[in-house]
């Protein structure tokens, strides 16, 4: 049966779940998966964390089935972080195959959700992490969901640390960004929303901190004001499921933002890269042709040389 135009145009949204160890990222992934199943919107799930012991959800593609993290550590004599990075590098060499699997399911699912390593810097600042992110973002609308442990963010210093990290990831990935305050069943995220929207409220919280960090955080909070204005903020509980509807509303809004603002820039960069590659190939070809002309030299009649 031929596909209808609406089916041909359907593209899933890729949700990259990024968060520090202990933020509840994997439990959040489990809740997102369960929520989508309950809505009859079965997602395509990819696990990129080779060191996770127990995955509380079923992944369509699991890095652990391709790369044995512990064997990589033994073979290359690496520590835990080095093992995760090397496993991710090895997996990235086969990522074109992953993309082909996703492509086969693209018309039958609304969301591709991706779980990343808890060692956040390994994914966000490695070459393999950048390749995976850029490849997915070039093929489908992509959104970054940055998971935050709300109870651990109640102090201004920890909050500012999280915001700076989020800011760095936003400018590294250059993708629509959602701040997901997890564990709101323990502590409400309203304090964080106030700190981001009302500078004076954050100043009052800083006033209680007499350490040398206070003045530094004060300066940084002024710099982050513009960053806050372009963020989507939601509060969720991976345990109770509260806030899931708000999260997917933010994802859908971010998809529209991707289509309108990010996709044209991504396409421009891809074309620019292709043009540079073509120019490089042409330059090499011209150099080769020049070298062939030089090495050709002048033909000599051998029979004449023998007579002499």
In short:
With 308 residues, the chain is of the alpha/beta class. It is built from 14 helices and seven strands. The N and C termini lie far apart (81 Å).
Structural class: alpha/beta
Point out poorly predicted stretches.
1-8
First-to-last CA distance: 81 Å
Q: Give the integer mean of the pLDDT values.
A: 87
Q: Order of SSEs, N→C?
A: HEHEEHHHEHHEHEHHHHEHH
Tell how many strands the DSSP assignment holds.
7
DSSP summary: helix tally: 14
- Note the overall shape: globular
Largest sheet: 7 strands, parallel
| Approximate strand percentage | 5-15%
What percent of residues adopt helix (DSSP H or I)? Answer: 55-70%
The radius of gyration over CA amounts to 25 Å
- The quaternary structure here is single chain
- The order of strands across the largest sheet is 3-2-4-1-5-6-7
């Amino acid at each position: 049966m031929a596909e209808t135009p609406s089916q041909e145009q359907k593209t899933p949204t890729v949700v990259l779940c990024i968060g520090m160890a202990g933020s509840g990222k994997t439990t959040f992934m489990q809740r997102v998966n369960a929520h989508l199943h309950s809505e009859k919107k079965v997602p395509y799930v990819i696990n990129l964390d080779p060191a996770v012991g127990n995955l509380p959800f079923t992944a369509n593609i699991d890095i652990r089935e391709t790369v044995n993290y512990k064997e990589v550590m033994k073979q290359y004599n690496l520590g835990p972080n080095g093992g995760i990075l090397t496993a991710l590098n090895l997996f990235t060499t086969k990522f074109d195959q992953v993309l082909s699997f996703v492509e086969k399911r693209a018309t039958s699912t609304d969301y591709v959700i991706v779980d990343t390593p808890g060692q956040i810097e390994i994914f966000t600042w490695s070459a393999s992490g950048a390749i995976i992110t850029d490849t997915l973002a070039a093929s489908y609308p992509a959104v970054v969901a940055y998971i935050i442990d709300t109870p651990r963010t109640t102090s201004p210093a920890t909050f500012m640390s999280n915001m700076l990290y989020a800011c760095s990831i936003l400018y590294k990935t250059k993708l629509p960004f959602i701040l997901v305050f997890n564990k709101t069943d323990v502590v409400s995220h309203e304090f964080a929303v106030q700190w981001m929207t009302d500078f004076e409220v954050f100043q009052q919280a800083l006033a209680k901190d007499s350490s040398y960090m206070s003045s530094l955080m004060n300066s940084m909070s002024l710099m982050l004001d513009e960053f806050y204005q372009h963020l989507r903020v939601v509060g969720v509980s991976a345990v109770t499921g509260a806030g899931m509807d708000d999260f997917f509303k933010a994802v859908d809004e971010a998809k529209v933002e991707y289509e309108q603002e990010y996709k044209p820039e991504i396409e421009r960069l891809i074309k620019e890269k292709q043009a540079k590659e073509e120019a490089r190939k042409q330059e090499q070809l011209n150099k080769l042709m020049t070298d062939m002309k030089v090495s050709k030299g002048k033909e000599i009649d051998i029979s004449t040389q023998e007579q002499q």
